[in-house]
Amino acid sequence: MTNRQYDSSQVASIYIEVRPTPSHELINSIIKQLSKHCPPNSNNKWSRAVDVGCGSGQATFKLADYFDQVIGYDISVPQIKEAIERNKFDNVTFKISPGEEIDLEDNSVQLITVCEALHFFNIDKFNSKVDSLLSKNGLFATIGYYPVPKCIRLDDTTVNLDRISNIFERTFQLWQDHGYPVQVFVERVLNKYRGLNLPFDKVCYEDTFVTTLRRPATYLIDLINSLGTSELFRSKYPEKDEILMNGIKKDLHEIFGTNDLSSVEIEASFEYFVICFKK
């Protein structure tokens, strides 16, 4: 990973609490594909899975039941620290490393996953690393979601909350205008990585998975603060960030008709996609 977006303790602590996790249905879809091309061992598990750009381990932990060993890699020390503190699995470990430089034996991994991080990598170098690590018929699965949820207000589902998307889009544009290349990442996720060069055999593409969270409306502020660029922008432009956040709060107060956002419960849905490639 050549782009450091989540390398602060504050963002790491928010990230683990705020970000959605892939559904069991999505993980099962990957495992089903792996079973088709690379049968498990006699214990009905595979030997090793690697989760690259693992963050604080949300997706990593969901692989634990299917493998003898699962290793999560990330370049962020605070994120890895959060993952280690929350790890309850004997067969799951976490290490600090760029995805392009993982130090494991060739042909020793049956599944490599990347969740919401592929757009940060040096793709050519990472492709080479994936090719060297995967065993014959091993699977590379890339998972993504657009971090702007579709929202409904639970006590009045007729309220139009489309303006919430506008808040995120204006925030992304402000960050872009100040030199943070968020739009290229946004476009890659919105295009579901169609423009990225991945020289492997595509064996599945699914975009029907949804993770839904019930939270108070203050969740939307936390979600923005969980984005890595938020901390970078705040550190460099504190006064502009204060204006930005005050404006976001004002807009949310108007949208929900109250200054007490914690009193309003919303349902936030994130649409996921997964693409599987076979070596």
TrEMBL record:
<dbReference type="Pfam" id="PF13847">
    <property type="entry name" value="Methyltransf_31"/>
</dbReference>
<protein>
    <recommendedName>
        <fullName>Methyltransferase domain-containing protein</fullName>
    </recommendedName>
</protein>
<dbReference type="InterPro" id="IPR029063">
    <property type="entry name" value="SAM-dependent_MTases_sf"/>
</dbReference>
<dbReference type="GO" id="GO:0008168">
    <property type="term" value="F:methyltransferase activity"/>
</dbReference>
<dbReference type="GO" id="GO:0032259">
    <property type="term" value="P:methylation"/>
</dbReference>
<keyword id="KW-0489">Methyltransferase</keyword>
<feature type="domain" description="Methyltransferase">
    <location>
        <begin position="47"/>
        <end position="157"/>
    </location>
</feature>
<dbReference type="InterPro" id="IPR051052">
    <property type="entry name" value="Diverse_substrate_MTase"/>
</dbReference>
<keyword id="KW-0808">Transferase</keyword>
<dbReference type="InterPro" id="IPR025714">
    <property type="entry name" value="Methyltranfer_dom"/>
</dbReference>
